[in-house]
Task: inverse folding
């Protein structure tokens, strides 16, 4: 919302400075966006006297002038036909920026003659298209008078950001009212007297859609002439960025911005019959004043006559009945359009007009009548002729019900805001803002539809006083020692994140959505993205499906990094995936990938540069699980990973039936589909599936460290090649849980000496005596039971 | 005695002449061995008279000790010399690069969230969480967005197909446009008093230099019987000063509008702009940092609480925005690009996590 300082002063009697006013605007909630001083660009330009003007010796059309600028006499070569001795003009010195031509002046020679600065035309000053000659000032103009003063360009333009609740301040008067209430002067009275009509209007108005347009005032004014609006109006409109068009159109724009009362003018001679406000039907269309043709849907607020659509109520008028310079008889509309209906239509057709901006927010319904009277007076004043005749106002509909009372306990201001404001001062503020106060019963004014309840009244009082007057009070923790602020879920997220970053993976944050086809590849087994999880209005087709897995986003990221020269990406993300739209359907996973090799080539040999394999991904998964407090020692590994992994080179870490994590090589077909040419291993940890550990306080169980010497024994078993190591280890461990403290697998062998279809698995078993040192016999007995247990569980034979 | 003295001279020179461990060992055998020279002389003691035997015996014992000590000292010297020779051959290129170790980083968004928890925890706030896929009621209606209110449209909401198992506003599925939804869930769930912060993903259908379709918000809610705007100001002033690590950071609260708060405010912090750079702190300009206000009575009512009994404040801010301001990250979109160079540059060490005791 833009306005100028002088415009504001039309409504506000004030001695406050520009800075005081702009600071107060922000303090009131009318946030200052900026102040533009239109005079700034014209600062170097001043009135000057042309002392002499001689013909240029080498150019017939040029004159060599000596110009008295007040501070010096300087030679200027001038091409204007009206440059002559004795005249007063506007001089632009060297270094001045010429707004109309966007050129910065430099000292120069024109056909061999020195030329400094220039005498300017209106076009060069960006004021008009006048370029027949340079500006000629009245003879009595004092040399050195600033151009801004001569052309009334010293009126600063103020721009405020208006919140959607404040319709009243979409007019300069509303802003003045707020400032006056806040002690920045007094609100000047507004002339709201009616203009007496000269008989019944020949044009009638019928409203068929009272919900969308409850009230419509119209007035025919006969015998006017629609020429240019006066300079004061034009300069204000220009200052706020509006192009003057014609007196009638400028008046509607002016009243819209001045009083937040949008109006519309029709050329009465172009209207066919009476006006009817009704709902549009799908398929209707009209050409609007913004030179676009709009196709309407059902249910939009259409202003029509016998010829059809004239415009969209509260949004934009049509070309067919628009006022032009030939308009002789004008029909003025001042109506009330419903905010919801206006906003809905405006959004649907994507029309942002000054009228819609105001009706969307809700204009003052009581002012509808005043608006037409003020418009009448302006039209008569500006466009009037001897024969001008305003007819009676056509009144259709009723003022929508806006009046409501609020029971207000003045003590509530202190309770809610912490600011102690005497009742008397509260009442004064409310009354200055136009509220009717009767004891504890407060009625907001018709222009403040946003004020609903007592909290709104508190805001009115304290914003006028200033939020800076509220004393700040620190908020302290209620307990000396707070328990964790985190939820257990957030704790596991944080710990997994730290564990993975500590393992050398970098954390990413990627979109919660991805393309439908990618989601299908990483989703359910039917390779079809779940329709319930497809966005109905995605930002692009690459981002239209809620992600079923984080892995594809990380793979795309890694792939992009390869293109940027970083081939060894190790990336992870801890975040949501969406198997369901239900509010409890979202799950949190920690997912990571390792792209390519472990590291770059290294002088030491191949190991540092080896390919990342599934055991790296498995280690990442286990580290995450450990960090998130999962019982990793008791997990079982199974070949049941999702089908986006390589079927033979992937696994699931399970606790009972629950999958806590999966890991493996990404399925080669998916890599192929994604255009990824390197190997990728990845993992997903399902943090929500980890059982919550019961907290037993910070104390640890007592360490049971045996004082007896441990015994280590190696065993090599020959098993079928499809027997997995974990089965052997579990069987061995099961032989004597109390004494076996650890088992490690130290060799896997197939080849010479081992029969085809078999393999050798070698394990090292640590036996830790608990109560006393074991005898040789006891150790032998234990070894035998280990061999027996492994043999019976896996069909293994001890390797000879 | 002459024999003993002569032997001493002989053995001493023999041991001293041994310049490697093998020669020294044979010198030891010759001197001290069972068939050695001292032993041989010992054997002659039997033929001596008692007086002579006594003196010679004592002298021989002394000699034996002296030679043993001489051999030991010679052995130490030779071993030292040997080691020095070996080490001299073992020199390698110490300038070779180390084995590469990947160093992972924590994303600035996560780091900032941890900072937020740490600061607000010190004021007694606890974390609450809620789902990203929400419904119309939780995202709008419960938060006092009237149907058709332009503010609903301001949010540029992403929608999902209606949930056929639900009815009305609960069926209208969307991606939450703000974390304020969790205010509703938490109040419904836990009632009052309540003092929570919420951090998470939020979504709006907007993608340009300063907007991404997904971003993160931090939301705070403090409801009790007498929480007023003074507390709101104090809480947020303390927060911005702690977060930006500027003790005297000036702040300004301006009236504003949000459907779910009344009165509403926006908070600015002091800054100065010079040569295209932005510095947070006392300066000649203000920077908008967050929106806040007293929770609208309708919102409290919608959560099943009595607005005449309970009142309090709420605030919300963009996590990327405050991270950009604090850490000088110029472009919002880069947060989501997963460029390894960016992550390494702007990311944080996993072993150096935010902590109120060491500065966040």
Result:
């Amino acid at each position: 919302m833009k306005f100028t300082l002088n415009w504001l002063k039309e409504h506000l009697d004030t001695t406050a400075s520009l800075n005081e006013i702009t600071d107060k605007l922000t303090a009131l909630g009318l946030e200052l966006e900026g102040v533009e001083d239109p005079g700034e660009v014209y600062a170097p330009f001043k009135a000057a006297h042309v002392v002499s003007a001689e013909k240029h010796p080498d150019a017939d059309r040029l004159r060599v002038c000596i110009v008295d600028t007040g501070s010096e006499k300087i030679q200027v070569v001038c091409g204007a036909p009206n440059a002559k001795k004795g005249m007063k003009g506007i001089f632009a010195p060297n270094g001045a920026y010429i707004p109309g031509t966007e050129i910065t002046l430099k000292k120069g020679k024109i056909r061999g003659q020195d030329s400094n600065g220039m005498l300017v035309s209106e076009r060069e000053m960006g004021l008009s298209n006048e370029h027949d000659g340079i500006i000629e000032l009245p003879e009595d103009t004092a040399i050195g008078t600033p151009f801004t003063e001569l052309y009334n360009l010293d009126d600063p333009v103020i721009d405020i950001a208006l919140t959607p609740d404040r319709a009243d301040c979409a007019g300069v008067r509303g802003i003045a009212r707020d400032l006056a209430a806040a002690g920045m002067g007094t609100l000047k009275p507004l002339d709201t007297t009616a203009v007496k009509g000269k008989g019944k209007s020949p044009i009638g108005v019928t409203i068929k859609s009272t919900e969308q347009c409850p009230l419509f005032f119209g007035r025919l004014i006969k015998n006017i002439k629609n020429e240019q609006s006066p300079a004061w109006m034009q300069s204000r409109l220009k200052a706020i960025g509006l192009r003057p068009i014609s007196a009638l159109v400028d008046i509607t724009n002016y009243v819209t911005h001045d009083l937040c009362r949008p109006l519309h003018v029709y050329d009465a001679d172009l209207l066919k019959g009476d006006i009817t406000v009704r709902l549009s039907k799908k398929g209707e269309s009209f050409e609007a004043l913004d030179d676009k043709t709009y196709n309407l849907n059902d249910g939009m607020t259409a202003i029509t006559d016998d010829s059809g659509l004239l415009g969209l109520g509260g949004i934009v008028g049509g070309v067919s009945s628009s006022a032009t310079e030939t308009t002789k008889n004008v029909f003025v509309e001042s109506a009330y359009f419903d905010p919801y209906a206006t906003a809905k239509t405006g959004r649907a057709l994507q029309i942002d007009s000054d009228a819609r901006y105001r009706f969307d927010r809700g204009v003052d319904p009581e002012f509808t009548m005043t608006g037409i009277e003020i418009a009448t007076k302006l039209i008569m004043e500006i466009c009037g002729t001897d024969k001008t005749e305003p007819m009676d106002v056509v009144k259709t509909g009723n003022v929508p019900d806006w009046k409501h009372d609020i029971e207000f306990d003045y003590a509530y201001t202190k309770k809610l805001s912490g600011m102690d404001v005497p009742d008397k001062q509260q009442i004064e503020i409310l009354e200055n803002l136009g509220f009717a106060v009767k004891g504890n019963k407060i009625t907001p004014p018709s222009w403040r539809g946003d004020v609903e309840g007592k909290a709104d009244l508190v805001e009115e009082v304290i914003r006028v006083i200033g939020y800076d007057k509220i004393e700040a009070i620190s908020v302290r923790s209620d307990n000396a020692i707070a328990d964790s602020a985190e939820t257990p879920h957030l704790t596991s997220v944080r710990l997994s994140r730290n564990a993975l970053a500590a393992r050398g993976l970098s954390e990413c944050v990627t979109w919660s959505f991805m393309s439908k086809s990618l989601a299908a590849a990483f989703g359910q087994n039917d390779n079809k993205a779940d329709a319930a999880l497809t966005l109905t209005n995605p930002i692009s087709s690459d981002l239209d499906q809620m992600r079923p897995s984080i892995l594809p986003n990380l793979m795309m990221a890694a792939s992009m990094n390869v293109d940027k020269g970083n081939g060894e990406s190790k990336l992870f993300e801890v975040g949501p995936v969406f198997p369901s739209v239900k509010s409890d359907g979202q799950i949190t996973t920690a997912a990571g990938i390792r792209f390519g090799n472990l590291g770059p080539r290294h002088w030491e040999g191949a190991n540092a540069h080896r390919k990342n394999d599934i055991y790296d991904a498995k280690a990442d998964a286990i580290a995450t699980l450990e960090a998130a407090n999962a019982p990793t020692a008791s997990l079982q590994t199974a070949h049941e990973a999702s089908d986006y992994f390589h079927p033979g080179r992937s696994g699931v870490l399970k606790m009972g039936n629950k999958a806590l994590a999966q890991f493996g090589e990404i399925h080669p077909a998916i890599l192929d589909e994604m255009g990824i040419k390197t190997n990728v291993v990845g993992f997903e940890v399902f943090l929500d599936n980890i059982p919550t550990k019961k907290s037993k306080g910070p104390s640890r169980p007592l360490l049971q460290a045996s004082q007896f010497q441990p015994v280590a024994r190696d065993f090599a078993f020959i098993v079928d090649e499809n027997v997995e190591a974990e089965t052997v280890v579990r069987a061995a461990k099961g032989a004597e849980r109390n004494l076996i403290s650890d088992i490690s697998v130290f060799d896997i062998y197939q080849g010479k000496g081992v029969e085809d279809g078999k393999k050798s698995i070698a394990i090292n078993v640590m036996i830790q005596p608990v109560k006393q040192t074991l005898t040789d016999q006891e150790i032998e007995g234990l070894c035998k039971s280990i061999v027996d247990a492994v043999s019976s569980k896996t069909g293994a034979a001890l390797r000879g | 005695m002459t024999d003993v003295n002569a032997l001493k001279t002989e053995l001493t020179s023999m041991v001293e002449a041994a310049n490697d461990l093998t020669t020294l060992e044979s010198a030891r055998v010759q001197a001290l061995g069972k068939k050695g020279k001292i032993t041989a002389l010992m054997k002659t003691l039997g033929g001596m008279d008692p007086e002579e035997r006594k003196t010679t015996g004592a002298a021989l014992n002394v000699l034996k000790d002296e030679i043993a000590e001489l051999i030991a000292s010679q052995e130490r010297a030779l071993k030292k010399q040997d080691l020095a020779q070996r080490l001299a051959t073992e020199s390698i290129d110490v300038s070779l690069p180390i084995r590469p170790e990947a160093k992972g980083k924590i994303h600035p968004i996560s780091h900032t969230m941890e900072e937020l928890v740490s600061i607000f925890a010190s004021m007694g706030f606890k974390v609450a969480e809620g789902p990203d896929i929400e419904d119309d009621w939780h995202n709008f209606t419960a938060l006092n967005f009237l149907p058709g209110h332009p503010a609903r449209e301001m949010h540029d909401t992403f929608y999902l197909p209606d949930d056929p198992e639900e009815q009305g506003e609960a069926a209208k599925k969307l991606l939450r446009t703000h974390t304020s939804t969790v205010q509703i869930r938490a109040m419904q769930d836990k009632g009052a008093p309540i003092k929570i912060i919420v951090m998470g993903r939020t979504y709006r259908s907007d993608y340009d230099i300063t907007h991404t379709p997904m971003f993160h918000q931090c939301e705070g809610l403090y409801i009790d019987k007498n929480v007023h705007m003074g507390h709101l100001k104090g809480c947020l002033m303390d927060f911005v000063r702690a977060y930006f690590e500027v003790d005297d950071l000036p702040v300004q609260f301006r009236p504003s509008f949000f459907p779910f708060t009344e009165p509403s405010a926006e908070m600015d912090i002091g800054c100065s702009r010079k040569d295209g750079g932005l510095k947070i702190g006392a300066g000649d300009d203000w920077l908008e940092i967050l929106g806040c206000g007293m929770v609208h009575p309708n919102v409290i009512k919608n959560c099943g609480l009595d607005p005449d009994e309970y009142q309090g404040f709420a605030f919300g801010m963009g996590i990327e925005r405050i991270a950009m301001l604090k850490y000088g990250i110029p472009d919002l979109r880069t947060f989501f690009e997963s460029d390894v160079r960016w992550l390494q540059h702007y990311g944080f060490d996993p072993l150096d996590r935010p902590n109120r005791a060491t500065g966040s």
Remarks:
- The longest strand of chain B covers residues 261-274.
